[in-house]
Write a sequence for this structure.
């Protein structure tokens, strides 16, 4: 699988750098005064300071009776990685938009998911499938 490249807007380089390094545990790559590259589970995530950036108020879509922020991004993890990240986020007192939970329990596509925001208001979703062969299953 090829790694994706995603550049996202932020308001404060140092605050967001600390979040992605310490909370998300991403390895830092190249950087400048206005941007920083991170390794997000093998993908290239770049935070870019945008003058005048204001935390967006993401619209939501109802899924499973929960308000899912759209747009959002994240990575499909293994179940062990998901459990480790969820535990780490809880220990960092991250405020979840949607607490970690399991969807489609006992069905095709069973998955665990969680949603939260970075300090700049970018919505993140991380999920894990019980069976990775069912990521695109109907």
């Amino acid at each position: 699988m090829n790694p994706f490249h995603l550049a996202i807007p932020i308001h404060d380089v140092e605050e967001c750098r600390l979040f992605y390094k310490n909370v998300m545990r991403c390895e830092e790559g190249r950087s400048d005064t206005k941007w920083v590259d991170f390794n997000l589970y093998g993908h290239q995530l770049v935070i870019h300071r945008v003058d005048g950036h204001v935390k967006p108020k993401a619209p939501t879509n109802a899924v499973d009776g929960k308000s899912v922020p759209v747009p959002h991004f994240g990575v499909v993890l293994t179940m062990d990685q998901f459990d480790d990240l969820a535990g780490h986020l809880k220990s960092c007192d991250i405020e979840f938009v949607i607490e970690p939970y399991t969807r489609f329990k006992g069905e095709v596509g069973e998955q665990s998911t969680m949603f939260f925001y970075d300090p700049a208001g970018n919505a993140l979703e991380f999920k894990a499938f019980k069976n990775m062969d069912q990521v695109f299953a109907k």
